[in-house]
Amino acid sequence: MENRLLKVLVTSARTKAALAVTKSLGEKGIIVICADHSYDSLSFYTKYCKGRVIYPNPGTEPEKFINFLLDHIKSNSYDILFPITDVDMYLISKNLDLFLPYVKVAGNSHHIFMKALDKSATIEMAKKLNIPIPKTILLEDIDDIYKIAEKLRYPVVVKPRQSVTFISDKAMVCNTKYVFSKGELISNYISLHKKIPYPLIQEYIQGEEIGVFLLLNRGALNAVFSHRRIRSTNPLGGVSCMRESVKINSMMKFFAVKLLEEINWNGIAMVEFKIDSSDNIPKLMEINGRFWGSLQLAIISGVDFPYLLLKTLMGETISPVLDYRKGIKCRDLYGDFIHFYNVLMRPDKRFEYPEKFFTARQFIKFNERNLYYDSISLEDPKLTLKTFWDIMKLPYLHKTKKKGNYEIN
Prior knowledge:
The protein has 15 helices and 18 strands. With 409 residues, it is of the alpha/beta class. It has 3 domains: 3-106, Rossmann fold (3-Layer(aba) Sandwich); 109-133 and 205-409, ATP-grasp fold, B domain (D-amino Acid Aminotransferase, Chain A, domain 1, 2-Layer Sandwich); 135-203, Dna Ligase, domain 1, CATH 3.30.1490. Helix 3 (86-94) runs antiparallel to helix 5 (110-117), helix 7 (144-151) packs antiparallel against helix 8 (182-195) and helix 12 runs antiparallel to helix 13 (356-363).
């Protein structure tokens, strides 16, 4: 495969996942063009980005986004299109037949992608396959919320069935809510239901968060990796800012492969688990059917998912990558500043947050053995300066944000 002849287009250049894809492929001589609706996207600043494309916002102008992207690809020669976010995947997979005559797309059909995106579908498949899950309630009648609220043990979690839903051609993205009483559950559920119908109600599970990353190619496992979250921007969970590569938990690997095989998945995916502290059993949380924010850690540890996926898309046979370096840490310093702030301010005192002094001690460890950074490197000075500039802007962003956990993706 002649890497220098390959040219790829990466969407959502503002994200950490897009940055990791760009760096991975760019380092190997592949021409990477980065695209986004934001002119200030992170990936635009890395030396491995060889061109910038600004398209309409897919979340607010989906039809214009698809038309622009299709026209751009028709007018330029690309080998592969890498959609990055759920919004990108949703729209591009829905219009896959329009793109395939002109470019290979790193994604599944819309039907298969939706099986991963829809948490209620994931839960039903997990039940069928006897994969442990948090206790979950799926309502079919909004009036049932009043009866259910009387019976539950609190706190519980209310989350949308899909991370993104298009309503009236607008992408609706709603955050997970933690509720502590019957009244809170009813008000939060009804409020979320009005935006995205029939969210899930789940028990709140405390425990370590583990991600299992996989690359499947026509049923064969071509790559696997696992990490644990050390810190998240929101101390209650969510987007990670400090992670460590760990040995694969054989039970989680079995569950993840079994689940993806059930939906005939092809390509990369991240399957998230929480090890329930009450019984030490890993519980399935969700499937991310696209590249993930902690992708850089897997690449540094020896599992280069973007390059491996590119090889399979180009029809090359690859040797499975089933081993990697353990104990490697990767830090998103920008997100870690947000984590530090959230712990110091403790915006939700009803949950147990990390101890402040311990958090401060961990935060100032800027130079550890086997520690790497998502976007800070002497070899990529422009990207490094951009990262520090964004960190300096955080106090201003805080002033413009409503009270609550501070998390900017």
